[in-house]
Specification:
- By secondary structure, the protein is an alpha/beta fold.
- The protein is built from 5 helices and 7 strands.
- The protein has a 5-stranded mixed beta sheet. It has a two-stranded parallel ribbon with strand order 2-7.
- It is globular.
- The termini are far apart.
Length: 157
């Protein structure tokens, strides 16, 4: 019974991974990766980001467990740019992890950039992505491969 109680929230997260994007225009600017301000990481390599969002890396150096946060309006662009995966491929990957008994948790999807920032600001190990123009001091924008979102060579566009 305990395993079933643990599995239900994971299944809910997986179902939300397949939820349609909210209506409205999608921003086309760079995508900022954000962390909790207390997280010691200031930058990530693309491979580190990949390891986080694929459940390979489940804790930060400060031992805070990773909490993945996803924004449906940007997820397709983010998964393509950061992971080289389509949305359906990403969902299948996580379904396989969950059903294999892996301890990594799939991303929690929240509907707005403000909600992503609030969740990331509340959890030490949270990592999320938002349109770079929506970033504010409540979260820490990290570099990717040493580049900031305003750099023309920034990889998450």
């Amino acid at each position: 019974m305990r395993a079933r109680a643990t599995l239900l929230p994971l299944l809910a997260c997986l179902v939300s991974l397949g939820a349609p994007r909210p209506a409205g225009a999608q921003a086309r600017g760079p995508i900022a990766v954000i962390l909790n301000p207390s997280n010691p990481e200031n930058g990530l390599a693309t491979e580190d980001l990949r390891h986080l969002y694929l459940g390979v890396r489940t804790a930060f150096p400060n031992r805070a467990p990773v909490l993945l946060v996803a924004l449906p309006a940007l997820r397709e662009r983010f998964y393509a740019a950061a992971l080289g995966m389509g949305d359906a491929q990403f969902r299948r990957y996580w379904m396989g992890l969950v059903f294999s008994g892996d301890s990594a948790l799939p991303p929690v999807e929240v509907g707005t950039e403000d909600a992503v920032k609030q969740l990331v600001a509340r959890h030490r190990g949270a990592v999320g992505f938002i349109d770079a123009a929506a970033a504010d001091p409540s979260v820490k924008v990290v570099t990717i491969d040493g580049l900031r979102p305003d750099d023309p060579q920034y990889p998450l566009r």
